[in-house]
Amino acid sequence: MPPGRPRWTDPAESRPGQLTWQLITVWLLGGCAPFVLDGVAHGFELGGPAFTTATVAMLVVIAAGLITMLYLLVRATSLVTPLGGTRRRRLLWAALVAAGGGLAWLTGRTVATAHGLDVLHNGRLAVLLGGALAALVAAALTRGWWLRAPATAALVVLAATGVLAFRDTGPSELDQRLARAGWTRDAAWHLDVPGFRPVRSTFGLAEQGDEYVPTDPAAAGRITLLTIDVSTGCHPPRCTDQNYLLLGGTNRASVFTGDTPRAAIIRNHHVLELTGNPDVPPELLRQALASARPATDTELLDTLPAYSPRNPVEAARAWLRRHT
Fold first, then answer.
1. pLDDT tens, position by position, 275-315
2. What is the dihedral of CA 161, 164, 165, 171, to 10 degrees?
3. Crossing angle of the two packed helices 87-114 and 124-139, in degrees rounded to 10
4. Quick check: pTM over 0.85?
5. Strand partners, 273
6. CA 172/CA 318 separation, integer angstroms
7. Count of CB atoms within 10 A of residue 115's CB?
8. Which residues lie closer than 8 Å to 2 by C-beta, 6 or more apart?
């Protein structure tokens, strides 16, 4: 063995030994650190300025301790990475491994959650897998392409998968629009009134409902559609006819007598009420209600007002959904 080339049996001075030592240590730190930080972060739930200040201070101390341990690790394994030669480079390596490992762990957790897996939430398996993600970051900073190239490729694949998982998680744009409008999917019903067109389209959920006017300008008549939630009973002023509660056992529309023609049918604990002026035949109202069907996603999106993201996370997810 030439001088200056330590044997494998001297791990403290050999590159293979230092590499093994470094990756195993990063693996352990990367697997345990997220759970320690997450556990301390629960202190914010206690509320109050004292607990908040104490929690922030503890998080800062733990993060500083992690950076310090990584710095000491790379100083002791300086043969493994080109960033181990000077104090600034070692500090940069520690920061990259800490930040990159944390980001890789969050990305892996996002991917796992998107597929209904809890492997990065608790347990020994979470420590092993979380540590492996941090070790990938350290491996990407080593000397030589044989380890750096596959580690970098794995991180790129993980990042791409994480972006797609982030895009597909969380409420959809339609769900966010429905929540903003105070509507639910089961309350939105589309119906066609022969010979009439809607002046306002809200599936009858607006305060005054929707209006339909004849498609023929010479024809007379006007119809109003009102959707009423009767899941907890008939409550004035929107619901004024207690007979609506009896519609649940029928699948056909019922016509009610009065000064103006009126028909109603119940669907998913919601009453669809059509009211016409005296020029509208009652049978037309019954026929229109018979055509009622759940509104499609496209019809809902065309009807609901545009959605503006409330925070940068929602804005990023909306941008990804539009461009990927």
1. 999 889 989 999 999 889 999 999 999 999 887 887 888 88
2. 180
3. 130
4. no
5. 226, 264
6. 9
7. 10
8. none
